Amino acid sequence: MGYKAAFLLRDLGEGGAEHSALRLANGLARDGLDVALFVFKRRGPLLAEVYPKVEVVDLKGSFLGLLRRLRSSRIDFLLPVYTSMRALLAKRLLRSDFHVILSQRNMFTLDRGPLQTRLRFLRCRLLYPLASACVCISRGVAEEMKALGLVEPEKIRVIYNPVLTDDLLARMEAPLDHPWFGEGSPPVVLGVGRLGYQKNFAMLIRAFASLAPRRPEPRLLILGEGRERAMLEGLIREKNLTDRAALPGYVPNPCSYMKRAALFVLTSRFEGFGNVVAEALACGCTVVSTDCRSGPAEILENGRYGYLAKTDDEADVARAMEEALQHPLPAEELKKRAAFFSERRAVEEYERLFGELNSKKSADCAKNTGLTV
Question: N or C terminus: fewer CB in 10 A for the chain?
Fold first, then answer.
C-alpha cells in the first residue's frame, strides 16, 4: 500500500486507549505498512510490546519537536490518541496535506464536567473541521458526534477496538496465584478498571452487599487503582465485607482472573466502548453490565451475550448478578461473540479507511488540476 501512518500519543502507559493504539500499530506494521509511534514521553510498560518494525519517536515533551518531525517526515496519516488538538494545530501551522484521523473514545459530553465540556467544544469547533475522518469506537459515540456537529457526518465511522488478539488468548492461560481461585474455591465476582467516578465501583460494592445475605458464598475482587481507593475501602468496611471483598490494586494481566471468575461485572456510569467487557467474553466469563451510554449494550447485543442492568441502580445490578450466578451463559458462545472484536478486523477497517482517504485525495487533486481519473 505504500502508506506511512504515525500514532501520536502522550506515552505508552497501560490505559485502554494506548493498548488499542499499539495493537493497531503492530497489526498495520505486520501487514507491511510503514508505522511510527510519536510519543511526547518515551515511557510506559507498553514499550516492551512494540513490534520491531514500528519506529518509536521520542518528542521529549515538545510540540516544536512534533512540528519538526512532521516537516521532515513523509506522513500520510496522523492518528492522535488523546492528543487531537495538538495534531490538528500542527496540521494548520504546517499547512500540510497529511490526513488527521481523530479517535473519539468516549462520550464527548460525559467524560468531563460541564464547564470543561463547553470550553472543549469551542476549541474543537475551530479545529475538528481540519480532520479527514473521525473514528468512533461505538455506535453510541458516533451518534453523539453526529448530533454535536463538530465534523461532517460523512467523516464519521465506527470501528470497534481491537480486543481479541493472540496475546490475549495466551495471557488468559497464565497461571494465577490467588487464594480465592483454585479447586473447590467459592465463586468470584470480578470488576476491573480505574478506581474513579466513571467506573462507579461503589455501586458494585453496594449491590454485592445487598446480594450477600442471599448468596453468602461469592467473593468480590476489584482490580485497579485510582483516587477512590480510600472511599471504596471504607465502604467495604461499612458493609462488613472485609472477609469477602478485596482491592488488590493494578494487575497487568486481568485476563487470567477473567478466565477463572464466575462473573464479570461492569457498573460504569458511561463508556465509550468497554474493552474489559469484550475481554471477559473472550475469556468465556459471563458478564453483567450497566446499560450505560455507550458500548457495553452493543458488545452484549442488548442482552443476548450478557446481563444488562439499569445504570446507577443498586437493586437492579444485584438482581442481574444473582440471575447471572444462577444461569451462567455458555462460554463457547461468549468467545464467538468476542471474535467480532478482533485485532484483524480493526486493522482491516483502518486499511480500508486509508485507501478511501487516499483515493479521495487523488480524485480531489485531479479535479483541481483539470485531470480525470
Answer: C
Distance of CA 105 to the CA centre of its chain: 7
pLDDT in tens, 129-168: 999 999 999 999 999 999 999 999 999 999 999 999 888 8
This prediction's pTM: 0.86
CATH level 3 topology of 4-162+342-369: Rossmann fold (3.40.50)
Q: For residue 227, what is the DSSP state?
A: T
| Ranges for all domains in the chain classified under CATH 3.40.50.2000 | 4-162+342-369, 166-340
Give residue 373's pLDDT band: very low, low, confident or very high (50, 70, 90): very low
Residue 35's contacts (CB-CB under 8 Å, 6 or more residues apart) are 4, 5, 6, 7, 25, 28, 29, 53, 54, 55
Of the listed ranges 59-73, 104-118, 203-217, the one predicted with least confidence: 104-118
Domain 166-340, CATH among 3.40.50.2000, 3.30.420.40, 3.60.10.10, 2.30.30.240: 3.40.50.2000
Q: What local confidence, expressed as pLDDT, does residue 210 receive?
A: 96
Q: What is the pLDDT of residue 209?
A: 97
Query: What single letter denotes the amino acid at residue 10?
Result: R
In the block, residue with C-alpha cell 459471563: 286
- List strands edge to edge, sheet with 34-39: 55-58, 34-39, 4-9, 77-80, 99-104, 133-136, 156-158
